[in-house]
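Quick note —
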Amino acid sequence: MTPASPASPPKILIVDDHPATRRLLEEVLGRDYAVVLARTGEEALSRLKACPDIDLVLLDVVMPGINGYQVCQAIRQDAATRDLPVVFLTVLDEAHDEARGFEAGVTDYIVKPISRLRLLARVRNQLAVRQKQRELEVRNRELMQALEQIKTLHGILPICSFCKQIRNDQGAWQLLEEYIQSHSDTQFSHSVCPQCAKEHYPELF
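Predicted structure written out below.
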C-alpha cells in the first residue's frame, strides 16, 4: 500500500451493512482519522482499489453478498493490500469463528456491541504496528539497494593496466576513486604509503 503523507491523518476503511454501526464508527474515529465507508464486501474491495493509501480496515463479518472472511482472503491475495491490517467487527465469539478468521488472515477482532475505548485502543495499536512495519520496509529497501551497490563493486570491472582507470557503465574511463564514490557512500582521503614515501621523498629516510 502507498503510505499516507506525513501531514495527513491515517485513513480507515469501515465496512458494515448496518447504518447505525457505520455512523457510530464514523463518529468515534472521524475526529482523529480519515474515514472511508462501505456497505458491502464488494464495495469494500472497490474502495481499496480506488484508495491505495488506506491504512486499516474495520470489517463486518456477516454481510449480504461476499462475507468478511471472503473479503479478508481477497485482501491477502492481492499484492497491493496483503500487508494491510484487517480487524473484524463481529458478534461471533465462538472459538471456531475466531480460528476461521485467523485462517482467512484477520489481524484482530472487536466483538459487538462495540466499546468506544476498546475500539480506539485497538485502532491505535494496529496503526502503530503498521507504521513500524512500514519503517522496516523502508530499511529493507535501503539495505537491498546497498547490497546491489556492493554487488556492482564486486563484479568484473575493466581496469587499465597502466593508469589504473576503470571503464564505467557508460564506456567512459574514470579514476578508481571516482568510480567507487559514485557507486557507494565511500569517501577517500589521500595519504602516502611507506614504500612510495621512500621512493618519492628519500630525503626523509
